[in-house]
Amino acid sequence: xxxxxxxxxxxxxxxxxxxxxxxxxxxxxxxxxxxxxxxxxxxxxxxxxxxxxxxxxxxxxxxxxxxxxxxxxxxxxxxxxxxxxxxxxxxxxxxxxxxxxxxxxxxxxxxxxxxxxxxxxxxxxxxxxxxxxxxxxxxxxxxxxxxxxxxxxxxxxxxxxxxxxxxxxx
Amino acid sequence: xxxxxxxxxxxxxxxxxxxxxxxxxxxxxxxxxxxxxxxxxxxxxxxxxxxxxxxxxxxxxxxxxxxxxxxxxxxxxxxxxxxxxxxxxxxxxxxxxxxxxxxxxxxxxxxxxxxxxxxxxxxxxxxxxxxxxxxxxxxxxxxxxxxxxxxxxxxxxxxxxxxxxxxxxxxxxxxxxxxxxxxxxxxxxxxxxxxxxxxxxxxxxxxxxxxxxxxxxxxxxxxxxxxxxxxxxxxxxxxxxxxxxxxxxxxxxxxxxxxxxxxxxxxxxxxxxxxxxxxxxxxxxxxxxxxxxxxx
Lengths: 170, 296
Prior knowledge:
The structure holds 2 protein chains of 2 kinds.
Chain A: H1 10-20, H2 33-37, H3 39-43, H4 49-58, H5 62-67, H6 78-82, H7 89-102, H8 109-121, E1 130-131, E2 137-138, H9 155-165
Antiparallel strand pairs in A: 1-2
Chain B: E1 2-7, H1 11-14, H2 17-26, E2 32-36, H3 52-69, E3 73-75, H4 78-93, H5 95-107, E4 118-120, H6 121-129, H7 131-137, E5 147-149, H8 153-156, H9 171-179, H10 203-219, E6 224-227, H11 230-238, H12 240-247, E7 256-258, H13 259-266, H14 284-290
Parallel strand pairs in B: 1-2, 1-3, 3-4, 5-6, 6-7
């Protein structure tokens, strides 16, 4: 295997370090304790946090972002606990997700829907009707729970949310 | 009497109604006063992958609104609890981001203030109500029932901020269960992950992660499990049948309860006052042992 140096993006590590501070991905020495601890890796062995950190440090993230595998992180934070170097791979992955979105990559479809709902309704989903085991239909009102109001009434709140999240679905 | 702002987050008020029903009926009976907090909305934690800054802004907004109310926050959801505490920590240390968030909030007439105490359900039960008081209120002990506490990731991690269970294990959780008369104990990967966050990427892989948790509980002889996180509940209870189908193992069946539902049962509340008819796992197995009908 040869390394195509044209794919190296030096800016990535700088951006990631900025986003994950005070954690220190530049100190990773590839002990792979994070991958041993990783919940996602248990069911998806192709997902290896130590390799994600290595590729990030080398600036070789294009394939990583193209594959979409960063969205498989279960965010259990075990990698960060096991890491002897305070790399916090989970935070690196979150930073990579942010960079991917800024570069125009799309997140998984469900996350797009959740984002849209948060901006428009204030919650990741509208209040749904649920079924009991006996197929009875329950809603908040049937259960006697107070009606859910839209929490964002200020137009500036909506503007702020759009500024951060609007790009993924608009 | 302790008084808290009831912060519901997203999942609880839009689909995991049993948690809200049981909290609203149980906590006041334990001397906890709950104040509604409808202006809060989503904490932003599920969206931090889209924009970390956006997430910090969203949680900072909720903290500021809570500060204005002058009450501590009771976060029912593991994700909300972690989100608010983590953002408090970020705002404390990152001056640049703090100023940016303050500016954005200022535009909507909200003054940035993150000097707010945040507590999780398990802390309210264990630290505020206390096991002795809970024990004194038990009229229907969960005797002879071996219950696996399932804290969920974010009750334990990340440990660089204060956690509801600071020991890295669900000790408070097990003490509350013991106070109810239940048997508790060890099983492998008790602090493991339910896989809920993997759902948008691949339900199939997420289900396999949940399946491994149920298998561990069954292998160690547990007859039921309990959590205080709506995401864990969603995986363990609501999707239990789909999980059995996915992994092709019919033995992966276990009754799943919110901790507040178990407290409610033990202090004598009716199953419907606890939303137990909304649990999709075989909770009847436990109710039968207690001589309670789901439909009374």
